[in-house]
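Exercise 7 asks you to align residues with tokens for two separate proteins.
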Amino acid sequence: MKKINNHRLLVTLAFSIILVFGVITTLKSQINPLIQQDYKIDYSQLGFIMACYSVGNIVATFYGGVGIEKFSLKQVLWAGLVICSISLVTISYINSYYLLAGVMIILGIGMGILNVSGNSLASIVFTKNKGKMMNIFHLFFGVGGIIAPIYANHLFDLGFSWEGTYSIGSVLIVFLFLFSLLCKVPEKKGEAKKKETTIIQILKDREVVIFTLMFLMHVGAEIGVGSWLGVYLVDVQARTDTEVGFYISLFYILFTIGRFIASLIVERVGYLRLVIICAVGGIITILLGLIGPSSFAILLSITGLFISVNFPTMQAAMFENFSDNISAIIGLTLTAGGLGNIIFANWLVGIINDLVGIRLGYGIFILYLIILAGLTYSLKAKYIKKEGLITAKSNSKG
């Protein structure tokens, strides 16, 4: 009974971590304009602030996974919670642009540790139906994104500033810390615990490299499609602000629905097969949305239904395939995702948009998804041998 209760506590902790991560991470969408007004900075300076956060996040995910392998999941989680709480509270006590940039780096480190810890915990506690559970797990990130603006607006109505939304958010971090005290997190035993692992050693495994590239391409497409949708609708189709808001909202609504639907079908369809199907679905909707009449723009929003499925499903496939150094591999793939966000979703697309126009620039996401489908197929066909990776162990092979 005690073991069952502890497992339930660990599952609740995992969902709580990704929920809090979603709330704090998505606050920036509403807070960024207020930071710009308060500090009287231009778009480039605001972009630098966000880049500082991303750099901290990438550093944390890169080293966080190895840190979990070397020390323990609970110790690394606690370190991340402490860093998060300090940086969130500090935001209310600074008034310098450069100090804000420094605090954002620290906050990015804390949130990156929280992210890799939550995903590592998920790899431990979701022992059955990993595809279903990982899609539900990441669904909670979307729930956090829904809660964030409601939470922020409520505090604004009470008279708090944008800094207060971050500082009061530290209460959520304290809750996670206190709740984690109730949980007994499984740790590695014996020689496996003592064995030193380096990133170079991990990357010698070709399957790890393929998974890393898959996350690089997927995040470049996932973040990019949503981030540039509004710009495309305005610059190419001259849509109004109301129309743009509708298409973007629809994208994220379908994005959330996609993960819910995936949780119901992924164990039957098979993990890698579903990734290929959704990648092809995204390719078709983006292509038709770009070459079709203006009414086909709705297909760009429908892309969210397909593209939402890949990240959690790829993680489930990864958890099925690897038993050793899983935290380090998670950290590596999350780092790849962070680089995909910065380089492939934003920087490279921006350059292409300037050179050839946003219609062709937006089409680069088709190429990302083609590469993703190809990598997934090669993994399915050549490298993954374990029965039960393509389908749940209780079902027949996909």
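Second protein for Exercise 7:
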Amino acid sequence: MEALITEKIQKQGFELVLEQLGAILFLEISNQIKLNCIDTDFEIFVERQEPYDNSEGVMVNVSLGNINYSNHNESSSEGNEVFNVDIYSNGSASIKESGNDNVRRKIHLFAGWIRYILSSTKYKTLAFAPGTIGGTYLDSIQFEDNYGSQDASFNRFARLQFSARVFECQDMDTGINLEGNDSVIKLCQTDKGYKFIFNN
């Protein structure tokens, strides 16, 4: 049996949105660090599996949570795609503030920046061409107070859930050309309406 799909399958919409989210957050957060003159280590990853290490500063990981499809037809469907934006940070105690306050301030600062960026009308289409994105929504923010606290390292974790309606497309089958009408049945107009008759 030969393959029926002969065209090269391009990157799917959810793959493109995942990478675009990471790029947008990297660009905008880096700019906010510069604008606010903040001295902090910051890294952003896509689908990172390696656990957060205490030697790192603020780490953001963007991952795909789930997709539900609707509005199906032969050439496209609409995916309601949920992405997780996870923030990891540690804190350190100083004369001015405790380790708890230090990490709380950092995790809230980055969560606030990301909430603002993902809610901004400037990124409603995530900088894609019109017709690719049907809408974007920041759904929730969850803070985990007990993450990594067992070793007194003042670690905190937060997760933002972000949804995007993304149109996924596929080529339609070309079908078979009809050379003629070979049916033995046709519709004929009568004074009582259209009626099926045999084609003589």
